[in-house]
Specification:
The protein is an alpha+beta fold and 388 residues long. It contains eight helices and 22 strands.
Length: 388
Amino acid sequence: MSPPDATVSGASCARHDWAGSPKHAESGLSVRARVQPGPGFVLDVDTMLPASGVTTIFGPSGCGKTTLLRAIAGLVRPSPGRVALGEHVWQDDARGLWLPPHRRVVGAVFQAASLFAHLSVRQNLDFGLQRVPPAERRIALDQAVALLGIGPLMDRKPAHLSGGERQRVAIARALATSPRLLLMDEPLASLDAARKAELLPYFERLQCELAIPMLYVTHSLDELARLADEVLLLEAGRVHAQGPVAELMTRLDLALTRGDAASALVDGVVDPVDDPYHLLHVRFAGGVVQCIHAPGSPARHPGERVRLRVQARDVSLTLTPATDTSILNVLPARVQALADDGPAQMLVALEAGGVPLLARVTRKSAQLLALAPGLPVFAQIKGVAVLD
């Protein structure tokens, strides 16, 4: 059975503003880095990233994602280079300034948890805590333990933890250093689907309750859609695109819209739940979407913010609002652009109340409807295609 075509995610916090972009702090993370880790490849990046929310560094294998994270952490030295988080300058070649990794107040988690095998969970966390003088600790260890649900694991050794549990401990150890920035290098890549699903809510809780800026490296579109506020798209060591996740996921000139998983994100707020039908009503700038509120899923409350992911293949178009139809969601929209998607299909970029959507239709349908930029249409989304 294929995964749900659209999902509801996100904890009840104000992580996302209504424009779909992160709440920016007073300053950002400035990165100017040129690194040649080996023959035939050069990372050459000059960008400013938000100092809040989750910025996902996305791209195919070998595009420079991990190298960029290592340059920010100080594990490789760009030449030339400048790395600064607000007023905290970690490298500035023009001034001859270079701070080694242990002075950058950065927490890092990689694919392998890299816990000390001879130490218990508690001792692994104490190792991270001891790196920070008591007066400079901004995160209480008990808070990190509670957020990540590892209290029952404190006396175990890493060999007696599951893969997901080891990663949660690794995240807690990174938090114990009271970092100003969290670097996540494909932390879920080595886990199976069940363990990934187990960990994703913890990343959301971190952003809700700690608000530490996070750079999250992945090549998983599912993780990007679930977690990202901002996206930095790398290609062959260069910045190919950068911007709010909802915007980049619907740009027809980017690879994010290619393939069967092409989708749009809608951040909305929960209206009263239609309990008899187990439906969730989510209001956003373009209207109201009704979707399944599955029995046994976490309770949703009026006013709670959630994120919907609607795949292009589950959006059909009509020129007039349909009647006598089983499709619950019929949203007024306007065509923004069209692009070829193979010999028989087209992708249609839409706008509904200022929110971007995507539809995948046959070339024949596009011709019969005379789809063109500026045309008003109605986007139809089946309620069963949007699962809570």
